[in-house]
Specification:
Rossmann fold, alpha/beta, 9 helices, 312 residues, single chain
Length: 312
């Protein structure tokens, strides 16, 4: 919790979400209940009526017989050589499943004419880094190796994620660049956690609502332990040259806004095409208020950025 209230800076349309969202302090003890609560919430989640199909697939992990569950969303009729999005859900690396984002992924598939693969990667603390990133790389490998069968264009595979998923998407771009095996065309990062290091001093106007510094610290310790790898925290990379073009969005009151600003500036200085959108009055997770003007704008901006990337 910040030392001063930032409520007066919140977009008025977002205040009902703020007032209805229960305060939560993550601990190892309550993780199972929170995870179960997410599944229960999603059972009642209405899905849009769109001409898309959603199915579960299990892809090889490259680690013995273990497979990785993924959600595949695509138009009922997918033209050959279509673009694809490799997606990672949020949840601080300790929570979440792909279905949390299913309405958004369905819209992307319908409006962009693309296939979306969202990865049910392993979670910390049971599986800390590098386990989840191993799953991410395995999914990228599967998309490339299965491109002909799936009807997708290997040259138009974007990675996307929000919060912890945005961290994974950014780190996967570094892994793919350094290993030189599988190309990524675009990185689409929604309110990503890009830097594990604690800001000193912290920004007094961020992190008061929804996702606090205390919760972020719990997740950092659960996921990273003592790791300082750029494949765990993208801002640790000394060189950002050669990365795919980037779109980064974040709220002005988000705990991660400063690292998004810094990372975007570093991308630009490294010669990487980068766009940053900061939403005034918005905190982490503001898009849960789906009917607000700012959330609708963010949804439209997402589609615009991805459509532009796929048209390159």
């Amino acid at each position: 919790m910040t030392s001063l209230s930032t409520r007066h800076l919140v977009d008025p349309e977002l205040l009902p979400l703020l007032d209805s969202f229960p305060p939560m302090q993550l601990t190892r003890e309550i993780l199972p209940a929170v995870r179960d609560g997410i599944v229960a919430m999603l059972t009642a989640q209405p899905l849009p009526e769109l001409a898309v199909t959603c199915r579960t697939v299990f892809i090889p992990s490259g680690d013995g017989d273990r497979s990785i569950r993924c959600l595949v969303v695509k138009p009922v009729t997918l033209p050959g050589n279509s673009p694809a999005i490799l997606h990672f859900h949020g949840g601080g690396h300790v929570l979440g499943i792909p279905e949390m984002n299913q309405p958004q992924l369905m819209r992307w598939a319908a409006e962009l004419g693309c296939l979306v693969l969202s990865v049910d990667y392993r979670l910390a603390p049971e599986t800390p880094f590098p386990g989840p990133m191993d799953d991410a790389y395995a999914a990228l490998r599967w998309l490339h190796q299965s491109a002909a069968e799936l009807g997708i264009d290997r040259a138009r595979i974007a990675v996307s994620g929000e919060s912890a998923g945005g961290a994974m998407a950014a780190c996967l771009c570094l892994m793919a660049r350094d290993r030189g095996e599988y190309a990524i065309a675009f990185q689409h990062l929604e309110m990503p956690r890009l830097d594990d290091r604690r800001p000193d001093p912290p920004n007094p106007f961020t992190g008061e609502f929804i996702w606090t510094a205390a919760n972020s610290e719990f997740c950092r310790e659960a996921y990273l332990a003592e790791s300082v790898s750029p494949y765990a925290s993208a801002a640790r990379a000394s060189d950002l040259a050669g990365l795919p073009p980037a779109y980064i969005m974040v709220g002005a009151l988000d705990l991660f806004v400063d690292e998004c600003l810094t990372y975007t500036a570093r991308l630009i200085r490294a010669g990487v095409s980068a766009e940053l959108v900061v939403y005034p009055g918005a905190f982490h997770g503001f898009r849960m208020a789906k009917e607000t003007t700012v959330a609708r704008r963010a949804d439209d901006d997402n589609v615009r950025a991805l459509r532009k990337a796929f048209s390159r």
